[in-house]
Specification:
With about 260 residues, the chain is mainly α. The protein is built from eleven helices and no strands.
Length: about 260
């Protein structure tokens, strides 16, 4: 015969009773109109969501490294989880297909680029108030930083993803966000250099020239053939480019 004391001494049975008491208590609170406490449940749900998002970032960061080291052909679910140090099958649990993995990786690249862009914007705001720097020089520093370390991996991964973007609208959209952000920074840079009233047509031409030029610089950096050695040199080249576009624009419009 099992006594009540022995029953309660069993951890499993005791836990079952405790859960029963908790459920009964919550039911009574509902009957008498006392608000049900969801704080613990909400905290657990938020933690699980954070864990999922964190795991996705870890996998995407590993995918970026693989794209940089081995190219798109080397990207597999198995290699991603190995690089991330996670159990077999983890990658497929989050990204069922290779296309889904590529898209998520592109979104992660865009997310990291947005962080860099925000840093540039903040530094530009400080420079504009103190007049100790210009947006072009801050932009040049960001470009040169992308030639080393994790930023270089991201640049290489971005080119690999771009090769697939024309066949995948979602992938193209994620990478387009990066381009849009960079163009906006370029427009801000050249707007700051305008001597008088802002000429929007000129600003767009100059920003387009800057973006194209920097893409070329970045491409050479990615493949180990840098044509520019320092942020100072790049800043000078960008200033010369902006001035050249302005001169051409004024001549074309009969302003010189």
């Amino acid at each position: 015969m099992i006594t009540a004391r022995k029953y309660l001494e069993s951890p499993r049975k005791a836990g079952s009773i405790a859960r029963g008491f908790l459920a009964a208590g919550n039911y009574l609170r509902f009957l008498v109109g006392t608000p049900f406490d969801l704080s613990y449940t909400a905290r657990v749900a938020m933690k699980r969501k954070a864990d999922v998002e964190g795991r996705r970032r870890v996998l995407c960061d590993a995918a970026i490294q693989i794209l940089a080291d081995e190219g798109a052909k080397g990207l597999t679910h198995r290699k991603v989880e190995q690089r991330a140090g996670l159990p077999d099958g983890t990658t497929s649990s989050y990204f069922r297909t290779r296309s889904a993995l590529l898209r998520a990786t592109a979104e992660r690249v865009a997310e990291l680029d947005a962080i860099d862009f925000e840093e540039v914007v903040q530094r530009c705001a400080q420079a504009e108030t103190k007049t100790t720097d210009t947006t072009l020089s801050v932009l040049a520093e960001m470009v040169m930083r992308s030639a080393a370390g994790p930023a270089l991996d991201r640049s290489r991964a971005r080119y690999e993803l771009a090769l697939h973007a024309h066949r995948d609208e979602v992938l193209h959209s994620a990478l387009q966000d990066v381009t849009t952000g960079f163009v906006a920074l370029s427009e801000r840079a050249v707007t700051q250099l305008q001597p008088g009233p802002v000429d929007r047509a000129l600003v767009e031409k100059q920003a387009r020239a800057i973006t194209t030029f920097i893409n070329g610089v970045s491409f050479r950096q990615v493949f180990g053939h840098p044509g520019v050695e320092s942020a100072e040199e790049l800043t000078q080249l960008l200033h010369a480019l902006v001035a050249g576009v302005a001169a051409s624009h004024h001549v074309h419009n009969g302003q010189l």
